[in-house]
Structures are given as structure tokens and as C-alpha cells.
Write a structure and sequence with these properties.
Elements (H helix, E strand, L loop, with lengths): L24 H10 L5 H12 L13 H11 L4 E9 L4 E8 L4 E8 L4 E4 L3 E3 L8 H4 L2 E4 L2 H16 L11 E4 L9 H12 L13 E5 L3 H9 L5 E5 L5 H7 L8 H15 L3 E7 L7 H15 L3 E7 L13 H13 L3 E4 L19
Parallel strand pairs: 4-7, 7-8, 8-9, 9-10, 10-11, 11-12
Antiparallel strand pairs: 1-2, 2-3, 3-4, 5-6
Helix pairs in contact: 1-2, 5-6, 7-9, 9-10, 10-11
Bound molecules: iron/sulfur cluster (SF4).
Iron/sulfur cluster binds next to α4.
GO cellular component, one term: cytoplasm
Main location: cytoplasm
EC number: 2.1.1.192
């Protein structure tokens, strides 16, 4: 089978100018000093951006006006503007379409649950991985997002929760890198974004690393590099089928890193971080939902990961014009039963946002 063309790194065109959220604490001090200001101004800016969730320099009145303008121009360039919000599930799910400084469109989805509030962020505009069942993959990769463009999605969502945009005021607690794009294709920026998201305020937002999930279709070397960052984030591997023959089609990157390689990298991640790996499995009618595949999935996962794994079955969210469809509920139940019977924990993931095309695999950022 011919591998579809895969794009791992987008051209650098369109990346926004440098922003405070691109920088580590040390880099922020240096940048402020280079602008002729005292290093403590970096802390003030960080307090506003990461602590008070504002990106508007004019509101930072504890900084003298002239310095505020200079620092704002240099370190807080506007990154993302809202094109529109669309809500569903009784206003507990909200998808936001953003426009970046160069016109690039991207989406993020905020979901309020009884016990947590989760933001699904995009790490790229579009995606180059070409999974045939996914709306994002159909449009190809437009470009990577900068670290600050990822972080700013989080800032805006945290502010929206604080301000009660999704009902009672609340606190953003969880971040999943499951929006547009393959996060590990942009590893350096994603790792920096995770640090900004999880570093304690005012260095970052102070969200627990354990509440951050980074997903991947299986870029095995990048999984190992992520493990070597020694963070406590959860790794979610979108496996979708246990055998190379069908995975070569369903997840074309499998041509490069087949199932065994992906699972041994996942094992490395679990060993280094001590965290159980999530396996994502979009269940597709008559494609990957056969009983024998459930048995094979359990066998391969047990062999590679032992107990350090949990399978999330995701009923496929149909995309317009696609021949792929979700499996019937009885088939789904039997699949889950067999994986559990095979000694691997497996549950069905609650899907949100289907009616506003905000569910897994549906983000297309249409303007
Ligand atoms: S499923 Fe994920 S990796 Fe595959 S094309 Fe869609 S966004 Fe990209």
C-alpha cells in the first residue's frame, strides 16, 4: 500500500511575533531588560497574563503608562481573536473559532462536567496526518501554532470560566491536546506550552501536570522524547486498530512507525513517568469493531503495557460526506466486554459537542 504524504513540520510562515507566553521566566526577564526596563516588570506582566488572565496591556495600571505601552507592544502582541462561539449540551460545551494574526483559523472546545472543566486545545492549524475518518485531516496542515497561540487558548478559557460564560463561575481544571493537529509533530512548542500551563503562577497557570493529556497518532521517537521531559502529563495514543494492515490505512503514519514500535514507545513513556497510558480507539462500523480485533487489541496491549494501560473507546463522530459511521451499540458493548475480558481496562468515552461539529475528529475551522 502506498503511504499517503505526511507533513511533519509546517513551513514557518505565519507564526506570530514573539509573545510573553512563548518565554520562560528567565527569558521574560531578559526580554524586559533588553527593552530598558527593570527585570521585576517581567513578573508584573506575568502576574497579569497568567494570574489575572488578561492580555490587555492598557489594563495593567500598576506599570507606568510609558513602560506599559512599550512592554505591551513588544511582549503582548494580539494573538487570537474570536470569530464566533457556538454552544450546545445546555451551554456546557462551547466551541470557539479563532482567527490568528495572519488569518489562520483554528478551534478549541471548552467542556464543563460536574467534577471538572476541560479545554481541548489545538496545537496546529489543520493536520498533516491524513487520517481518512477525521475532518481536520481532510484539509491538510496549514501551519504549526506558536507556543503562545496554544497558551492563549488556555488563558481565554480560564477567563471565560472565571467570568461565568458557561453558567456558574468555575475553574478550568483539565487540558487535553486533542484539538486540531498532531501535538508531537510540534513537540518543542507543545512542551513549552505544557510548562506554561502547569508552572505555578505567575510563571504559568498552575494547572496540575496530571490534569494535562497530550495525544498522538504514534510518532514513536517523539513519544520517547516527551517521556524524557520527565513531566507527569498523561499520554493518549490514538491507536484505532491493533493490526498494521488496517492501521496503515486508518492512520497513515503507521507506515512509518508500526503498532509494535508505537506500543514499545508507549511502554517507555509509562516506565519513565509511572503513568498509565490511554489508548484511544474510534470505533467504526465494520472497519475496526470485529470481536477478533478486540481480542487482538487486548493481547497486544497486555504484551507491551501490562496493567499500565486503559482503552477509551470513542464512538465515531461522522464527518460530512464520509462513508465511515459509528458501530451499533450492541457491537460496541461486545467490543468493550472482550477487551476487558482480555485483561485490559476499557470504557466508552462520553462524547460532547457532536451537534456543533466540536467532537473528536470533527474540527474543521470553517470560517
Ligand atoms: S485524527 Fe488527529 S492526527 Fe489524524 S488527521 Fe485528525 S487531527 Fe490529525
Amino acid at each position: 500500500m502506498t503511504a499517503l504524504p505526511l507533513v511533519f513540520d509546517a513551513p514557518k510562515r505565519g507564526l506570530p511575533p514573539r509573545h510573553l507566553a512563548d518565554l520562560s521566566v528567565e527569558e521574560r526577564r531578559t526580554a524586559v531588560t533588553e527593552l530598558g526596563e527593570k527585570p521585576f516588570r517581567a513578573n508584573q506582566l506575568s502576574n497579569h497574563y497568567f494570574g489575572r488572565l488578561t492580555a490587555d496591556a492598557s489594563a495593567m495600571t500598576d506599570i507606568p503608562a510609558a513602560a506599559r505601552a512599550r512592554l505591551g507592544d513588544a511582549l503582548l502582541p494580539p494573538l487570537l481573536s474570536v470569530v464566533r462561539h457556538v454552544s450546545c449540551d445546555d451551554n456546557t460545551t462551547r466551541k470557539t473559532l479563532w482567527r490568528a494574526h495572519d488569518g489562520t483559523l483554528l478551534e478549541s472546545v471548552l467542556m464543563r462536567y460536574p467534577d471538572r472543566v476541560t479545554l481541548c486545545v489545538s496545537s496546529q492549524a489543520g493536520c498533516g496526518m491524513a487520517c481518512p475518518f477525521c475532518a481536520t485531516g481532510q484539509g491538510g496542515l496549514e501551519r504549526n501554532l506558536s507556543t503562545a497561540e496554544i497558551v492563549d487558548q488556555v488563558r481565554a478559557a480560564a477567563a471565560a470560566m472565571r467570568d461565568g460564560d458557561l453558567g456558574e463561575p468555575g475553574r478550568l481544571s483539565n487540558i487535553v491536546f486533542m484539538g486540531m493537529g498532531e501535538p508531537l509533530a510540534s513537540l518543542r512548542r507543545v512542551v513549552a506550552a505544557v510548562r506554561r500551563i502547569t508552572d505555578p503562577a505567575p510563571a504559568g497557570f498552575g494547572i496540575s501536570q496530571r490534569n494535562v493529556t497530550v495525544s498522538t497518532v504514534g510518532l514513536a521517537p517523539a513519544i520517547r522524547k516527551l517521556a524524557d521531559e520527565r513531566m507527569q502529563v498523561r499520554l493518549a495514543v490514538s491507536l484505532h486498530t491493533p493490526d498494521d494492515e488496517s492501521r496503515d490505512t486508518l492512520v497513515p503514519v503507521n507506515n512509518r512507525w508500526p503498532v509494535d514500535e508505537v506500543l514499545s514507545a508507549a511502554r517507555y513513556y509509562a516506565d519513565v513517568t509511572g503513568r498509565r497510558v490511554s489508548i484511544e480507539y474510534a470505533l467504526i462500523r465494520d472497519v475496526n469493531d470485529q470481536p477478533w480485533r478486540a481480542d487482538l487489541l487486548a493481547r497486544r496491549l497486555r504484551q507491551h503495557l501490562g496493567q499500565l494501560v486503559h482503552v477509551n473507546v470513542i464512538p465515531l463522530n461522522p464527518t460530512p460526506g464520509s462513508e465511515w459511521d459509528a458501530s451499533p451499540k450492541a457491537v460496541e458493548r461486545e467490543f468493550v466486554r472482550r477487551v476487558n475480558a482480555g485483561g485490559v481496562a476499557c470504557t466508552v468515552r462520553d462524547t460532547r459537542g457532536q451537534e456543533i461539529a466540536a467532537a473528536c475528529g470533527q474540527l474543521a475551522a470553517e470560517g
